[in-house]
Please model this.
Amino acid sequence: MDDIYSRHKKIWKEKKILREIYSQWYGKIIGDMSQVSGTAVELGGGSGNFKEFKKDIISADIADLEWLDMCFDAHEMPFGEDEISNLVMIDVFHHLIDPVKFLFEARRVLKPGGRVIMIEPFPSPFSLIIYKRFHPEPFDKSIDYFSGDLIRDGKDPWDSNQAIPYLIFFKDLEKFKEKFGAGFRILKKEKFSFILYPASGGFENRQMIPDFLTGAFKVLEKSLAPLKDFIAFRCYIVLEKL
Model:
């Protein structure tokens, strides 16, 4: 597993377009972080890129990596009740064995007014075509994560279901509200990322455009916003503890 993280660190340094995209995302997240006092934690810190932009955040991952601050399972965080101000996670929620259990744990450790901020895949009609062709992680929309019937044993942390954010915050939103309506409010639920990120190839695929076209693709990205329901590759979720 360390090889994956090390490879991502190398790609981060070499791929300018990827750094530009994530820099925008990181700025968006930092702008939405709660201002309540307390420790901010990045879950799934991976190659440690976010810490370049938010020096005082605690970077954590389930893998024990020398460049991160902590190692633990997000389902059982080593923090007391009402201790944490922000939990930041990028492409982590869809890897969780039990996202509902995690949300209960997040509610436990967050201070009132504390936030969970995440960026995750979104299965629009267009993005599903590209994800299925170029990305090995599945989109299984048939699972009810609120049922309590999940099989948790033996799951590898790199296993995933990219449909989890869609199921929790879109398809089964009423179940989320029933379970967490007294604990969280959804401050933001946005669909975004239309063409620039797929053109970058991400961390796993070849870059499809030269760097000098990045600016033009940023302009095109903004112009495509009205079509977000049909072409979005990502969703942006901000939860606040009540």
